[in-house]
Amino acid sequence: PMAGGDFNYTKSSKRSPFDDGLRTPILIRWDGHTKPGNHGASCSSVDIVPTLVDALGMDDLSASFPGRSLWPSATGNMPLAVRPVFGEIYPGDASSLGHPSRDLAYRWIRDGRFKLIVPHSRVGQKPWGRYLDKTALFDVVTDPREQHDLANEEQYAPTVRRLLGQLEHWWKPDTKQAPSD
Known about the structure:
alpha+beta
């Protein structure tokens, strides 16, 4: 452990807000139903249940779950649509169930080539894990290791505002609601 009780997780840890820790392939195979393919668009784990419901032909149920069905892409009937993907990182030790804002460490959004990471901390403390102290923007196409923060470059100010607006629309941590898709 580091000083102050934090664990020194790496940037590639599943507990970090960086792509090395977040990106996980989703593989869908059902012989006779799916077609081999590789899709570069982002998807999320919240897409798994709607995909399974769709694959089972329970279309009336799929709209009741967050996420989207990946089944049309898995069967080769439609390319995977590009859309923003959102997420949050927690230290893993919830202080109050039902109040995710209290323990939130980072929120992030990936939209196309850009990824915005917003750190959150308790008053007077640095953000958990000390990955970032302030909002950061990365072009994950030209900078896949997320080494060059673009958030303070004037030409990227509109991108930061747009992504932050999308992130706030997805979930504002000062509310008591959990995130949804």
